[in-house]
Design a protein that fits this description.
By secondary structure, the chain is α/β, with parallel strands linked by helices. It has a domain of 153 residues: 2-enoyl-CoA Hydratase, Chain A, domain 1 (Alpha-Beta Complex). It is built from eight helices and eight strands; from the N terminus they run H-E-E-H-E-H-E-H-E-E-H-H-E-H-E-H. Strands 2-1-3-4-5-8 form a six-stranded parallel sheet, sandwiched between helices. The chain has a two-stranded antiparallel ribbon with strand order 6-7. Strand 4, helix 4 and strand 5 form a beta-alpha-beta unit. Helix 2 packs parallel to helix 3. It is globular and about 60 Å long. 33% of the residues are buried. About 2% of the residues have low confidence.
Length: 226
Amino acid sequence: MTAMDVGRNPQLENIESMGQNVLPAPAPSSIHILNIIGQIEGHVVLPPQNKTTKYEHIIPQLAAVEQNQSIQGLLVILNTVGGDVEAGLAIAEMIKSLSKPTVSLVLGGGHSIGVPIAVSTNYSIIAETATMTIHPIRLTGLVIGVPQTYEYLDKMQDRVVDFVCRNSKIAKAAFRELMFRTGELARDIGTVLVGKDAVEAGLIDGVGGIATAIEKIHALTKDRVH
């Protein structure tokens, strides 16, 4: 070791060699942040190049949040294209069943089965430029022509519609109308709501960003304590 090596700052070396700055460790927080990013992976493993959120990783986190006395609230941040319907509903139902205050924040997009997750919290927020896509339930694009298949899809769709409408201000008729508004279907991906449009439709509670979400979760936490 040379004299120049003595007293070298490891953080400075990291900046010089990797171009990375070392962020200060965050202070302990009573709010747990849960990210749901990319595609929601359920019973089928997706290709490795897909950015995924695995439901078997999310469920234990939610159970831990409920049991941990030091955690007073949950902030769910979504930027998802949707994914496995069963897995998405399972996550949404578990968030809804938490006894602690919950807030969701849609950044970028909260599409497809991401919609029930977004509305499963006590209060939902969407960024001004974020979008939500509402479309009929479909599997892989290949529909087997037997009555059981149609009945299964119909019942699954009813479950999604029922959950969304029970946990938001949108009526079932209005939500179904958005699902099947063929005149505005964008390349068969569904009806797209942007920011305040989702609020005006009654799907999301308010428009805002991370500061709004943090402020709201703290307000809900204080109300719960009092």
